[in-house]
Known about the structure:
- Strand 2 and strand 3 (33-34) form a beta hairpin.
- This protein has one domain (7-208): Spore Coat Polysaccharide Biosynthesis Protein SpsA, Chain A (Alpha-Beta Complex).
- It contains 6 helices and 9 strands; from the N terminus they run βββαββαβαββααβα.
- By secondary structure, the protein is an alpha/beta fold.
Amino acid sequence: MSQPPPTLGVVLAGGLSRRMGGNDKALLPLAGRSLVEHATERLAPQCESVILNANGDPCRFSRMTLPIVPDSIPDYLGPLAGILAALEWSATHRPDIDWVVSAPADTPFIPHDLVLRLHEAFNETRKLIACAASGSQAHFAVGLWPVSLRHDLRQALVDRGMRSIRDWLHRHGYAEASWPIAPVDPFFNINTSGDLRHAEILAQQERVE
């Protein structure tokens, strides 16, 4: 595949950051920029456009020049709710786009060929959904989602009480695109202050290379 079809990118920043002491993890600094800026800068060149899924006061993201889209279901139901918000936003505001790719805001090293490789995995398998993996670990929040599944996802969240991305993926079946974990795991995510310190080292290594 030389070029993927038009795809909307969504950076997921809707969580409560409990493991970081309740701080707004997306805004934590890494190598001079916030985590959410790193994720957006990686994803934006690969997508037709990018939105940020975030709850609460949108003014804290005033430096971001992209639409801020909160969950369309209350009570902070997790990344599935953020994916639903992106699918529904795309259907309303970008009906010309049939695909959404998601990446968490705390994953600053996402690969530059993420969107292309996920579409290739879909084309090879014809599964409805594709997700990323590195080494032997799947990263279910990093995925390619058809906008057409938005009604099914809303029903799963509201009527079935589903919260696990893994459960919803297994319900439909999914393809997997895998990346190596060396020299840097492209899906290294930051959950603790130790992770953030390690990410600083990785970012320095990237600049040197």
